[in-house]
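Support request from a user on the community tier.

User writes: "When I paste my structure tokens into the form, the page sometimes reloads and wipes my input. The last time it worked, I copied everything first. Here is what I submitted, just in case something in the input itself triggers the reload:"
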């Protein structure tokens, strides 16, 4: 039987197990990436391992998230990251060089390799034919230490692209179509592998837009073949030597095959508050628009922004719209500038930011009350823009550009313009001076630690029983943005006690006080969740801060992959309900007891939860490998590694 791209790359990197979907495997990690908001904690954890150098082929530390720098905290974190990179053999992409996923695609990604990143959009590099996976910072620290990465061997869904996109329809519409088909839940443990004649018609940045937003479906990653188009892209980046062909065998078998005809796709939009709520742009046309944001780590490439510049050349932004651009990288900005396109964008009325996450994560450019904000970024979760009452719609750059001209949502095909075709450059202008190489005298490098940086909190081993209170009961599709907001709160990422004050802030701002009181009274906090708990980001603070507040278990209908791994890494057990009615019969404030949990886990027995308030009991599932059980029994990954 022939092999898929996924199987080929994973088998080449297997350290434990076989390619058997559903079983736990361990793979060697060739490259890692971190960004500053997750990176500080990851490097503190790496330092705690006591190694003198990273053991990967390549590790890059990017500074792109916390760049607003109101106060000393983030500047101090950046200096810490720079000193750690110099000492331990890590490359540092300085603030101003670009957003990690775009820069990694341009300068470092290699077909056929594995990449692990402390950011959920790490799969962007799958556009180059790599297996690129997002994970919590602690998993990245462990991978930098040369340990393999454990994951559930994925099922492979082939997305067979046919035909060719019509004018004014682009890669964002393709991935929104994928989100319409697969939704944001129920895809845990799968990989989307793209192929077919249609895949050949897409450039690398278009492929990367599609793999980037696979994260919203909850898949482990998404991957495209590495072909002649990939070779041309790497050549234009001066990296032809990094190219290898990666393709599936013609008789490769897949767990599922879905055909998408590119020529049938029309401009689409994700409406509030989920990237999985899809409508056609036509259905929404005429809606008044207050803000248009183009860029972030999706649709911020040279090709995307050049297309926008050509649509907007000589025109002005509608007076009721605030127009923001976050370019993907310094390289994108410099190449636009050389073509005169940067001037065209400024002349339209664009507010061009540094090449950073910015508006996407809500730490700047928050829109007005009840705004309609059209964005080419990848997430429109409730509250993410920093304005609770705002409504975010995700669209292609073409739709966003058309709407900023008219002040209303409009299908770009109705602009009455010829579609500007942008060719990929044969050679990009490249200047890597904002990427710092590690020190040649690492022993002489002193690590800088500002007052914002505390030691990561520790956790005791799992207690004999869990006995406590349901501090909060939430519904389906709770994202890590609900659990711990980013935006203006993100500057406290290196200070866990302070950041913990904002746990569940946007859902219930009494959570912190109540959870602290329960913890201080010697009881445990327990969270109850619905389907697909922990969607979205890889931020381990969504587990680390609850751990600090004494949360010992989360019982949900189902979990998303990265968050469930993060819970285990921080000693919080993820348990799943067996029936809907067990979920229905629990309320916030109920006293629960999970007797003999240590013993039950060790002996692999059924786990019973007693609801003391309701006088009922029910059984819950735990799907844990022996390794995961041992991590939980030790109280989390750091103690588990120390014990080993
Ligand atoms: C996001 O898009 O939500 C983030 C901010 O990039 C996160 C990482 C973080 O919270 O630091 C992600 O996607 O993993
Ligand atoms: Fe940054 Fe937004 Fe991309 Fe996350 S999704 S890496 S916040 S640009």
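"...and here is what came back when it finally went through:"
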């Amino acid at each position: 039987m022939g092999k898929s791209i996924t199987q080929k790359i994973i088998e080449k990197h297997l350290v434990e197990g076989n390619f058997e979907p559903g079983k736990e495997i361990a793979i060697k990690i060739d490259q890692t990436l971190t960004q500053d908001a997750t990176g500080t904690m990851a490097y503190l954890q790496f330092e705690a391992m006591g190694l003198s150098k990273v053991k990967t082929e390549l590790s890059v530390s990017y500074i792109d998230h916390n760049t607003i720098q109101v106060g000393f905290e983030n500047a101090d974190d950046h200096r810490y990251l720079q000193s750690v990179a110099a000492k331990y053999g890590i490359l540092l992409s300085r603030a101003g060089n670009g957003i990690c996923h775009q820069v990694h695609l341009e300068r470092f990604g290699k077909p056929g390799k594995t990449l692990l990143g402390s950011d959920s959009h790490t799969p962007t590099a799958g556009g180059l034919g790599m297996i690129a996976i997002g994970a919590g910072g602690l998993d990245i620290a462990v991978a930098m230490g040369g340990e393999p990465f454990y994951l559930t061997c994925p099922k492979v869904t082939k997305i067979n692209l046919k035909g060719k996109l019509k004018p004014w329809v682009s890669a964002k519409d393709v991935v929104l179509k994928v989100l319409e088909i697969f939704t944001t839940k129920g895809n845990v443990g799968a990989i989307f592998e793209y192929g077919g004649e249609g895949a050949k018609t897409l450039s690398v940045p278009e492929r990367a837009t599609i793999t980037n937003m696979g994260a919203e479906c909850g898949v482990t990653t998404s991957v495209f073949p590495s072909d002649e188009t990939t070779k041309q892209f790497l050549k234009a980046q001066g990296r032809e030597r990094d190219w290898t062909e990666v393709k599936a065998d013609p008789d490769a078998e897949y767990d599922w095959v879905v055909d998408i005809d590119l020529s049938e796709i029309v401009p689409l939009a994700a409406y509030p508050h989920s990237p999985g709520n899809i409508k056609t742009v036509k259905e929404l046309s005429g809606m008044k628009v207050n803000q248009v944001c183009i860029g972030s780590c999706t649709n911020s490439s040279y090709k995307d922004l050049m297309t926008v510049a050509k649509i907007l050349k000589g025109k002005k932004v509608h007076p009721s719209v605030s127009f923001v651009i976050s370019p993907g990288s310094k390289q994108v900005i410099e190449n636009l500038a050389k073509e005169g396109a940067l001037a065209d964008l400024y002349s339209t009325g664009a507010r061009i930011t540094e090449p950073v996450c910015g508006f996407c994560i809500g730490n700047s450019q928050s829109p007005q009350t009840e705004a309609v904000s059209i964005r080419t970024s990848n997430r429109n979760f409730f509250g993410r823009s920093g304005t609770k009452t705002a409504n975010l719609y995700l669209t292609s750059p073409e739709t966003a550009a058309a709407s900023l001209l008219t002040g209303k949502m409009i299908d770009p095909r109705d602009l009455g313009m010829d579609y500007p075709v942008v060719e990929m450059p044969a050679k990009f202008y490249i200047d890597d001076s904002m990427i710092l190489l590690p020190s040649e005298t690492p022993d002489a490098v002193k690590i800088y630690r500002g007052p914002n940086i505390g030691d990561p909190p520790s956790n005791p081993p799992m207690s004999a029983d869990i006995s406590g209170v349901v501090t909060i009961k939430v519904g389906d599709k709770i994202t890590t943005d609900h659990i711990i907001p980013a935006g203006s709160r993100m500057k406290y990422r290196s200070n866990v006690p302070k950041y913990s004050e904002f746990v569940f802030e946007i859902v219930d701002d009494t959570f912190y006080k109540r959870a602290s009181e329960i913890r201080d009274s010697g009881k445990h906090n327990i969270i109850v969740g619905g389907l697909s708990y922990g969607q979205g980001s890889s931020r381990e603070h969504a587990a680390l801060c609850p751990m600090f507040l004494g949360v010992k278990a989360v019982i949900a209908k189902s979990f998303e992959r990265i968050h469930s791994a993060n819970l285990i890494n921080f000693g919080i057990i993820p348990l799943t309900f067996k029936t809907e009615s067990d979920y229905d019969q629990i309320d916030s404030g109920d006293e629960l007891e999970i007797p003999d949990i240590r013993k039950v886990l060790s002996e692999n027995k059924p786990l019973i939860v007693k609801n003391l308030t309701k006088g009922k009991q029910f059984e819950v599932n735990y799907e844990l490998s022996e390794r995961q059980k041992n991590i939980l029994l030790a109280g989390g990954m750091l103690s588990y590694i120390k014990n080993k």
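Agent notes: The reload is a front-end session timeout and is unrelated to the input. The longest helix spans residues 73-88. The chain is about 30% helix and 20% strand. Escalated to web team.
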